[in-house]
Amino acid sequence: MRTEEGAGHDLRHHGDAEVRDDGSGLVDLAVNVRADTPPVWLREVIAGSLAGLAAYPDGRAARAAVAARHGVGPERVLLTAGAAEAFVLLARALKVRQPVVVHPQFTEPEAALRDAGHSVDRVLLREADGFRLDPALVPESADLVVVGNPTNPTSVLHPAETLVRLSRPGRTLVVDEAFMDAVPGEREALAGRTDVPGLVVLRSLTKTWGLAGLRIGYVLAAPEVIAELERAQPLWPVSSPALVAAEACVGPQALAEAAHAAHRVAADRAHLLAGLESFAAAGVRVAGPPEGPFVLIRVPGATRVRARLRELGYAVRRGDTFPGLDPDWLRIAVRDRATVSDFLEALRAALS
To answer: Mind listing the pLDDT tens digit for each residue in 169-178?
Structure first.
């Protein structure tokens, strides 16, 4: 399904709103940041950078480290203050006529495009199709296409070659891989590919490493695209502590730890899915199969269930702010087995 204007969705609502103010004491299953992070060793690395705060940030070492991690040259890397800044840069710097955003997905790309004055078309993927992408749904005339992989909030992992089929001469293909390092083996990743014309890959270091408050991510693209985005950035856009963290998070020790964490998340997600299956008689349905560190479920009366879960001490993400979803959807972050088990008991009580 394709639509030019979508009404009724708060594109600026994000999971952190669920745990602010009166939600600060809740068990957080609304935000997709790994719960046991940042690890002690990373906190120590960041703390060690504070003595150099009098100097202006120098991103060359971090840029080179990210480039080496993906097997590309530094000219193909741009460090940003989180993936959110990258979406703003793309919206402001690239000259596009017909941008298309594939939904349901993270809403910030569309919000940034609209704020930059663009009229945005939407391609809405359907639950009946498992929220899987059919490239034929994207209009040939689109010169900018944005899609997540694995997609937030559906947790669907699209095959890399399906995404490659979206590439066209004169089109920029933006793939948001913010959660790809939570997928074992990073299968279906396009980061590091240089054979796909117009490809722009966004990565975030805030999810796996618990650095949402530090703001660090990066863009991988052709040198001419990187240069254009860099011209749109302010001077010194990424702080020294964030640069040190970026360099550390793409090193061998960190990559091994992230790979281990991805397998642990997969096991914890399997435990969550097994528990959710027991609520099928109550009308609970899981989108997917999910491959990310979160699960999207349809629940009859989800607004009431979400409110009851808050009373029981749990915050989950409402789904109705995502284009393509209605109020009966909830997103649940994957947590450790014990937390998941306790949550499932709370969900049982909320459903009854």
So the answer is: 999 999 999 9
For residue range 279-299, list pLDDT tens digits in order. Answer: 999 999 999 899 999 999 999
- Which residues are registered as beta bridge partners of 330? 297, 318
Decide the pairing of beta strands 121-124 and 99-103: parallel
**Alpha helix (H) ranges present in the chain?**
40-48, 60-70, 82-93, 108-115, 160-164, 206-209, 223-232, 240-249, 252-277, 302-311, 337-351
From CA 321, how far away is CA 156, in angstroms rounded?
18
Instruction: Measure the CA–CA gap between 6 and 324, rounded to whole angstroms.
Output: 9
Using DSSP, state whether 64 is helix, strand or coil: helix
Could you tell me the strand order of the sheet in which 172-176 lies?
A: 2-3, 121-124, 99-103, 144-148, 172-176, 199-204, 217-220, 77-80
Q: Which domains does the chain have, with CATH numbers?
A: 2-36+255-351 (3.90.1150.10), 40-251 (3.40.640.10)
What's the pLDDT tens digit per position in 4-31? 444 568 887 887 878 888 878 999 999 9
The whole-angstrom separation of Cα 252 and Cα 271 is 29
Q: Is the pLDDT of residue 67 over 50?
A: yes
**Tens digits of residue pLDDT in 72-118:** 999 999 999 999 999 999 999 999 999 999 999 999 999 999 999 99
The reported pLDDT for the residue numbered 11 is: 83
Residues 324 and 124: beta-carbon distance below 8 Å: yes
Is the dihedral angle over the CA atoms 92, 225, 104, 302 positive or is it negative?
Answer: negative
Output b/e per residue, 9-31; b: 16+ Cβ within 10 A: bebeebbebbbeeeeeebbbbbb
Kindly state the DSSP code that residue 153 receives in the 8-state scheme.
T
DSSP 8-state symbol, 57:
P
Separation between Cα atoms, residue 31 and residue 15, nearest integer Å: 5
Cβ atoms of residues 138 and 173 within 8 Å: no
